[in-house]
Fold:
Amino acid sequence: MEEISVLIADDHTIVRKGLRRILEEAGINVVAEAADGIEAVQKATEFQPDVILMDVEMPHMSGIEATKKIKNDNPNAQVVMLTIHDEEQFLFEAIKAGAIAYVLKDRAPQELIESIKMASQGLSLLQPSMASKILTEFTRLGKKKKGPEYLYSNLSNREREILRLIAQGMSNKEIAKELFISDKTVKNHLRNIFSKLHINDRTTAAVIAIREGLVE
Structure:
């Protein structure tokens, strides 16, 4: 596996340094640190890291707001939320903002490392309890008659095919190989899909694909 580059965003210096040590010992390249949400957005644009490790609560701009801005600028950016909160409110807001994973600070370092490795491939690692909460929320939302799935008809056949592969858990590289296209082309299609559906994360895209019968 190629070296993974990571941006650490946390307002506590001791936490950032501790995370840097853990990640670097695991062979992960920490390219930058940010002390608040505004700096996280700036550093994400400057360094273009594979994964952004984002604290939920930070001064000046929260991790949730920073994630939204980062995902708006670059839909392919992978954000892993790191927090002390396991309340459903924070979890749902993080996922809706575009975070690909949500890790509690009291978990073992290896779980964080695995989350980062999977996120770098466009995959998500969620604790069973959190996955259950997300599924329950999407089921509730699915009963409503409004949502991005009603914009599904705007997608081209190629975009629908990519949406189906996203729902199967494929990374960008795997999709490119499956469809005999370049990684850059896949990223461009993803940008268009997210724009047309008014969403900014792969999890919601996968849910839409399942609702539309692309995946059984």
